[in-house]
Amino acid sequence: MSYVSKEQIERAKQLDLLTYLQCFEPYELVRCSRNAYSTRSHDSLKISNGKWFWWSRGIGGRSALDYLIKVRGMSFPDAVLQIDGNPPVHMAPATPAIQQDGSNARLELPEPYENSNRVIAYLSKRGISRDVIDFCLKTGRLYESRMYHNAIFVGFDLQGTPRYAAIRGTTKTRYMGEAPGSDKRYSFAIPADDNGTELHLFESAIDLLSYCTLSEISGKVWRQSHQLSLAGIYSPKENKDEGIAPAALTNYLQSYPEVEHMVLHLDNDEPGRSAAAMIQQLLSQTYEISDEPPVRKDVNDDLMIYRKQREEPTR
After folding, report:
1. What is the pTM of this model?
2. CA triplet 131, 137, 141: central angle to 5 degrees?
3. What distance in Å separates the CA atoms of residue 211 and residue 201, rounded to the nearest whole number?
4. H-helix segments, 218-297
5. Torsion angle, alpha carbons of 294, 300, 301, 306, to 10
6. pLDDT computed for residue 33 by the predictor
7. How far apart are CA 128 and CA 19, in angstroms?
8. Where are the beta strands (DSSP E) in 146-191?
9. 310: pLDDT strictly greater than 50
10. What's the CA angle centered on 85, arms 84 and 87, to 5 degrees?
11. Are 95 and 83 in contact (CB under 8 A)?
12. Strand 226-229 relative to strand 198-202: parallel, antiparallel, unpaired?
């Protein structure tokens, strides 16, 4: 077995993966965006904000040492020597990644109605603040469809192009669906103002808006954090050690590498609790994660009970 000194170990622990690859293996780096990279060997391994995560395997870390052991399969002493015992090679700029779009279908957004009065009335009855509703209407995240007068919750990519739309009925039929061509990676979300580092997760758009309303009632500035709907969740299969993070979450974390802390508000039922546990299992090594489920089944239930107990009208 190779021998390494304490000094070598300490130096190796201090080196982050991006710096290591830039110095020793620049040919492995592929630039995905302004401040995010992947590797040529593993295109699902993303590096950003001083952290790395291998999405296809559900493992991650911060240091180059973690990478060499977990990804390359090196022993601890060999990984230390790989970092501390080799001279750096010539630096080369990382090449841009070829954008890969997993969905070739074109999003077919429902035709909008001339106003959104029915949607406003419906969401107001669900306890949602008028300020929150108006924000979504003004930013194009919400509108009323001409046919059936459904509520349409729109998700965008980083270029501002609509890529997803959840459809919610505003009548007693409680219709729920998605527009044809919807890409779940771009589910309904409200990014933070000024590069916030906290991300709140919900199963549905209405739960997301309910949390924003509860934050507003308590005097918090809800735009300081990211809000993301996962467009539903799945229950991990029994007796399976490996899980897959929701597509919407994976894409959002890659798009907003400044996120450091996640707060889970998934439903307080068996599927919601299982999904929350799986997300924590997959991502807790890379992100700080807090599990804050609703007291009742979902966040909107909590909001409605809060309104009823205080007999507060929706403003």
Report:
1. 0.69
2. 115
3. 10
4. 247-255, 270-283
5. 90
6. 72
7. 46
8. 151-156, 162-168, 176-178, 189-190
9. yes
10. 95
11. no
12. parallel
- Dist. CA 92–CA 35, nearest whole Å: 16
Confidence grade of residue 200 (pLDDT, cut at 50, 70, 90): very high
What letter represents residue 294's amino acid?
A: P
For Cα atoms 157, 254, 24, give the angle at the middle one, nearest 5 degrees: 135
Cα-trace Rg, the chain: 22
Whose structure tokens read 């403003």? 315
* Long-range pairs of 170-179 with CB within 8 A, sequence gap ≥ 24: 170/118, 170/119, 170/121, 170/122, 170/144, 175/148, 175/150, 178/231, 179/107, 179/108, 179/109, 179/110, 179/152
Written as six digits, the tokens of 201 are: 């997760």
71-94 per-position pLDDT tens digit: 988 888 888 888 876 655 444 444
Local confidence band at 96 (pLDDT 50, 70, 90 cut-offs): very low
194 by Cβ neighbours in 10 Å (0-12 / 13-18 / 19+) ranks as exposed
Local confidence band at 116 (pLDDT 50, 70, 90 cut-offs): very high
The tens digit of pLDDT for each residue in 20-40 reads 888 777 767 888 776 788 888
d(CA 216, CA 174): 27
Q: Which helix (H) or strand (E) holds 305?
A: helix 299-310
Strand order in the sheet with 51-54: 59-61, 51-54, 45-48, 36-39, 29-33, 95-96
Q: How many CB atoms lie within 10 A of CB 14?
A: 12
Higher pLDDT, 314 or 20: 20
CA–CA separation, 99 and 105 (whole Å):
16
Those residues whose C-beta lies under 8 Å from the C-beta of residue 282, and which sit 6 or more positions away, are: 58, 243, 245
